[in-house]
Amino acid sequence: MDLVAPRILGIGTHHKTGTMWMRAVFRQLAEAIGVVLRQVHPATPPGLVPERDRAMLVQWSSAFPDWLRTRPDARILHLVRDPRDVLLSGMRYHRDTEAAEEGFLHAARADLGGFSYQAHLRALPDDAARLRFEMGERHAETVAEMLAWTPRVNTIEARYEDLVAPDGAGIFREHLRNLGLPEIEVAQGVRAFRDHSLRDGLARPEDRRARVRSHVADGAARQWETRFPPDIARDYAARHGAALVALGYETHPTRWVERLDHAA
Q: What is the model's pTM?
């Protein structure tokens, strides 16, 4: 692909990989620089894109339409997170949230005896059982989505762990530059990043909107190292260990479990 100056900016995440954060950041940035922001889906037609003006096109499962991924004037920022932390965050959120927009949580399911996903999750005896259930349900779908992503020459690959690190704003600055934004807009993007960061603008829980609080309890990286019981770690390695290797979070599907056993 012969790239040209970027006009279409794509932002892609996955469930519990920083979606609420990136949604707030890029909405603020789009408003600040006067660029339209629209959500797209795999079947979205190319006519959604303005003919001449720039646009931000977001997809919170990173399931962009093929025509967007192959456009030479498009740049796409793609964000992933360690799946083990995704599991912890997802289970907590699916257990506790009252958000109505998560339709799959509240629909009765015949395979769960008429209970909804959330009702079944809450009825399980403990969080270990909840993690096992989540592991084979919504979490498995999220892992499959991350594995389905294929980097291209016009994609910028980002990791949640880097963005929540002390130098995360600097790393985000470079991502914005790689998206093709001029320096004045990069500075506005970094400001939005800090405004919505748990390290900066939202460091105090009382400053977070209720919806943010429902999604985010602790945004730290590598929570699984202290919150995965060894038996859960072994189950996870058996089910999703290969995915950890494919996504670059481990070099072997199961040896990381030994580190937890030794730490215990």
A: 0.91
